[in-house]
Design a protein that fits this description.
Length: 146
Amino acid sequence: MKSLRLLVLGSLLSLLSLPTLAGPLDEALFRKHLTAIATGQLDAVQANYAPEALLDWVGGNLDGRYSGAESIGKLWRTFHQRRQPLQITVDSIESQANDKGATVIASVIYKSTDATTKVRQIVTLRDGRIHSEIWQIAPALAVKAP
């Protein structure tokens, strides 16, 4: 009986150490983030970030590295003042996770009345919050229509 318990315990421990695929929860958090950006829920956008988060915005007028949730919140306020209202089209979400966190990658089009911004977004989630994000302006990005 003792060997059976040890076998079961060993099996459970080995399952816990296996890498896992990111699941619906990680993608749901990412989609929630995109929706908050598009709908101008800027307090919610800022709350998605860990206090020490980094955002690399690559290309366009807002190009630069933004450090900390407060700085990132100011960036989104500037972006949203220039692009309102926004519609988003999301394509090709990919996600992976392990016991330390998850990475979600997507092709996204943000469209306002006066501009279309094609973006490749890469977000790293830890403990349900964004710790890093890359916002790559990608003019040649092909996104399927919904």
